[in-house]
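Researcher: Here's a chain I'd like modeled. Treat it as a single chain, no partners, no ligands.
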Amino acid sequence: MKYDYVSQMLPTRVVALGGGTGLSTLLRGLKENFENITAIVTVGDDGGGSGAIRRDLGISPPGDIRNCILALAEAEPILQKLFDYRFSEGTLTGQSFGNLFLAAMTGISRDFSQAVQRVGDVLAVSGDVLPVSDSSNMRLSAKLSNGKLISGESQIGAPRPDGTKIEKLTLNPSYVQPTENVIKAINRAELIILSSGSIYTSIIPNLLVDGVADAIYNSKAPTFYVANIMMQPGETVGYTAYDHVKAIEDHTRRGIIDCVIANDGDIDEAILNRYREQGVDRVTIDRANFKNTMLVTDNLVEIRKGIEGDIIRHNTIKLAKLIRKMALDMMETKLVF
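Model: Modeled as a single isolated chain. C-alpha cells:
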C-alpha cells in the first residue's frame, strides 16, 4: 500500500476512473456525497453506436462519455431523456442522440476534450468529465492463455466457449498520451476511485495510458477499487475479488490500490441461476488473499428490471455512502504502510 494521508475533512477533490455502466452508476451516487468530482473515462470502445461513429468520423467513441455526462448532469429531465434517446428506424437505428450531439460538437471544437466540456456545460454537469486521451486511434489488444492475440474491445469482451483467459492487455499504439488535464486532476485528487466494470475493457485501459498509473501510485490520496459483484463473460470467468486486484496490479504496480470495496450481500438463487446459464457466477471474496490491501465489505446489491430479466447492479446510494464513510475513517487516522 502507498497510502500516507491525514486530514480532518471529507475530501473535496475526487477522481473516478472507468467506463461503461460501472462508472456512470458510481457517479450518480458520488455526486450526492462529494463536492468536486472528475470522471476519467476510457476511449477504447469499438462496438455499437460508439464504434460506428468512431469508424465513420474518426473521433473518439462517445458512448461511455455520454453516460458519465448524464450521470453528473443537473439539467432538466427532458433534456437528459433527449441525450439518451436512441433512434429505432432508418440508418440511425440504435444510435443515440447524445452520441450524435457529441460528434457534432467535436466538429466545431478544438478537439474531443473541448467538445466534451462544452456538452457538459449544456447539461449543467456538476464536475468534470475527461476522456483519458484525445487519441481517436487507441485500440485494445490482448494475449490469451492459449497464446492467441486478439484486437478490439468487442473481441476482448466477447464470450469464449473454449475457456481461454486474458493474460495481458496492451494498447495499440503502445504509447497513448493522456488528455491535458488528466494527470493534473489525479495529482490534485484527495480521493481516487477505480470503479467497478469490465476490468480489461473499462478499467485497465485507463491505467495503460502514459503516466496515469504512475500518477495514481505516487499520489498521497487513498485509492479505492470497487470490485465487481458478478463475473463477466469473456473477461473474468472464474475470477475472485482478489483476482481482479491482481489483474490491475499485474498491468500497473503492486500496491497501487489501498482499499477494496466488495459486496457480501445475498442474491436470490433464481437470479443467480439465470447468470449461471450464461457461464458466470457471483464474484467470491477470498479474504485470505487480502494481506496487504484493506478489504471492506457490505450488502451493496440492487436488482433492476431489464429487458431480458432481473439485472444485478451496485446500489449506487449505498456504495457512495460507504465510500464516504471509509474516506472519513481513513483520513481521521494516520495510516502508513
